Amino acid sequence: MSEESADNSAAQAVCEAKILFRQLKPFPVIDENNNFKIETAHFLESSNQIIDAIACFGKLFSPIVKDMRQNVQKITDKYKQNESLFKYLEDLILKDKDGNDNPFDTVTDGLLWLKRAFEMMEQFFRNLLEDETRSEQVKPHLKKAYEECLLPYHGFLAQKAFQLLHSFLPSRSSLLGASDSNMDNLKALEEFLALFRANLTHLNEFYTKHDLHRTYKA
């Protein structure tokens, strides 16, 4: 089986008729027993599963899915070089940065762009949860999330590419299930987003503390 076929099979297992959030592995809990750090292997597994969920949006989203998978793979490749040394994501990034003249040629940059894409998707799903109208039209929710999380880092071509993609979003019920039967899935989504956001906030604070952000536009 090819890598692409394997990715498609994994995504289909999550999607079925909707994204089944109860089947996704939650992101790591960040607490004192974990040294307030993120376990790399756990983060990578959860990242791959949420990317599988995003693949449910349809084939037109394959470029952004591919880009996220490539950034996850950069981190994975570095992690596998020394799984003990890189047990925690923060240690992996700092050691990777310190070993390169330009930290943005490394997995440090890959994680930064992955974080930004994840922030957009977390906000999109959050917008769906907070939409009291339960409208089938979800394009405004993605547009708002994009403008808040990714637009500041995108140049003209990237912005045009997003405009095309967001025009082909599936409906709310296609993503989450019919309104009369998806209460458990919505609850699972809410629980999933709590740890998802905690991980993203933690990484954002970590990048700020170590001056790892940059303003380069894609």
Short overview:
The chain is mainly α. It has helices spanning 3-15, 40-54, 62-81, 89-98, 107-130, 139-149, 156-166, 172-176, 183-209.
Description:
One of its GO terms (biological process) is intermembrane lipid transfer. InterPro entries: GLTP_sf (IPR036497), Glycolipid_transfer_prot_dom (IPR014830). One of its GO terms (molecular function) is ceramide 1-phosphate binding. This protein is mainly alpha-helical and 218 residues long. It has one domain: Orthogonal Bundle (Glycolipid transfer protein, GLTP). It is 62% helix and 0% strand. It is built from 9 helices and no strands. Helix 1 packs across helix 2 and helix 5 (107-130) packs antiparallel against helix 6 (139-149). The longest helix has 27 residues, at 183-209. It is globular and about 50 Å long.
What is the end-to-end distance? 32 Å
CATH-defined topology: Glycolipid transfer protein, GLTP
Number of structural domains: 1
Number of strands: 0
Tertiary shape: globular
User: Any low-confidence stretches, pLDDT <50, length ≥5?
Assistant: none
Portion in strands:
under 5%
The CATH class is: Mainly Alpha
| Structure annotation, total helices | 9
> Could you tell me the mean pLDDT?
83
Q: Share of helix among residues?
A: 55-70%
Could you state the CATH homologous superfamily?
A: Glycolipid transfer protein
